Amino acid sequence: MGNIPQALIGALDGAEYVTVLTGAGISSESGVPTFRGKDGIWRKHNPMQLATPEAFERDPKLVWEWYLYRRGLMQGVHPNPAHLAIVELERRYSRFLLITQNVDDLHRKAGSLELVELHGNIFKVRCSMCERKLSEMPELEGLPPRCECGGNLRPDVVWFGEMLPHAALERAFEAAAQCDCMLVVGTSAVVQPAASLPLIAKREGAFVAELNYEPTPLSHLVDISLMGKAGELMPLLLRHLEAKGD
Ligand code: BJW
Ligand code: ZN
Fold this sequence. Notes:
- By secondary structure, the chain is of the alpha/beta class.
- It has helices at residues 6-14, 25-28, 41-44, 47-50, 53-58, 60-75, 81-91, 106-110, 166-178, 197-203, 230-245; strands at residues 17-22, 95-100, 115-117, 120-127, 133-134, 153-157, 181-185, 207-212, 224-227.
- The protein is built from eleven helices and nine strands.
- The radius of gyration is 19 Å and the shape is elongated.
- Zinc ion binds next to loops.
């Protein structure tokens, strides 16, 4: 088996409460583009013109077109071995929480159960006036789609400058403070407040390991930083853990 540090296997093996924080990198091997980095979305598109409440107010049609395009991309993709390894990991613990910044629904498709979506879900819709939530897009009669109240419907995602869903954030902070071990997978760890969760876990005594393609601002602050593809590292980690349990 490949190289997974014993300290990480030991920490996971001894943990009662495990959390995993994921970012766009975990879905890149499924074909979902990341935001930052070489082929990142924000290289080609200005987030201030597409992912802020001001942008939506200014040009709701443009914002909707961009989100419909991305929904289309995400509809056709499937969970990869990293998503599936997290499902396996969850089965090993009575206390477990998966905290994702991703809006692509791939963790749910993979079968993860204890899951919080910090930045919402691109397949859901809500009203920008009355906060009514819809689990599906209404029949389109032009963009932007309208709510019964007359307000513009919008994707149920969190844009820059917006608060994260309160219950999700509270659950994530509590889990970060209480867990014994946290895995941080495929996030550039620059977007707050998600990026502070590993630091809270560390401060409260958890063993924190990062799995990423490249170094991040977290790399020198965590216990272990593993460089590689999530779709290879996560299944490998699981196999080591299973071998230890035998
Ligand atoms: C692999 C891999 C493979 C690739 N295997 N690895 C100044 C200082 C501090 C904070 C702020 C500030 N100015 C403003 C803020 C606040 C702001 C913020 O943090 N900005 C920073 C960018 C500076 N945050 C907010 O506004 C948040 N709200 C908030 O703070 O409310 C309170 C507040 C209000 C008003 C003012 C101030 C505070 C909301 C954040 C919302 C983020 N929304 C988005 C879009 C979601 C909807 C959509 O999809 O369209 O969420 S932006 C985007 O970034 C998306 C992601 O969830 C998020 C994080 O990105 P992520 O997941 O880390 O992806 P990448 O692409 O960055 O990284 C991928 C990583 O994977 C890389 O490291 C690769 O190496 C790796 N990788 N392939 C392993 N195969
Ligand atoms: Zn409404």
